[in-house]
């Protein structure tokens, strides 16, 4: 299943900077591992914000939930999830009709 996920991270300014850097390091490592597995594709990062728009390719909504909950920065995230479906484009359908 494919999911479009918009994640915005809002880290409180009063958090210990070393603690935050540790969370960011763990987040990056987990993100890279999920990308190697083909489960998480960063589409782009939003300019001027600590936010990104990504595509997750997972077996189920439950797996996506588990992944998001495991992210070290999740407690500081606003997350919007949209389920996607794969379909043929109108051009491809036109070509198949001929």
UniProtKB/TrEMBL annotation:
Q: Which UniProt keywords apply?
A: Aromatic hydrocarbons catabolism, Isomerase
What is said about its interaction partners and assembly?
Homodecamer.
The record places domain Muconolactone isomerase at 1-89
Specify the domain of life of the species encoding this protein: Bacteria
Q: Which reaction does it catalyse?
A: (S)-muconolactone = (4,5-dihydro-5-oxofuran-2-yl)-acetate
* Pathway(s) where this gene product acts: Aromatic compound metabolism; beta-ketoadipate pathway; 5-oxo-4,5-dihydro-2-furylacetate from catechol: step 3/3
Q: What is this protein called?
A: Muconolactone Delta-isomerase
Say yes or no: keyword Manganese present: no
EC number from the UniProt entry: 5.3.3.4
Q: Which GO terms describe its molecular function?
A: muconolactone delta-isomerase activity
What is the species of this protein? Answer: Pontibacter lucknowensis
Q: Name one GO biological process term.
A: beta-ketoadipate pathway
Return any one Pfam family short name: MIase
Q: Spell out the InterPro entries in the cross-references.
A: Dimeric_a/b-barrel, MLI_dom, Muconolactone_d_Isoase
NCBIfam families given for it? Answer: muco_delta
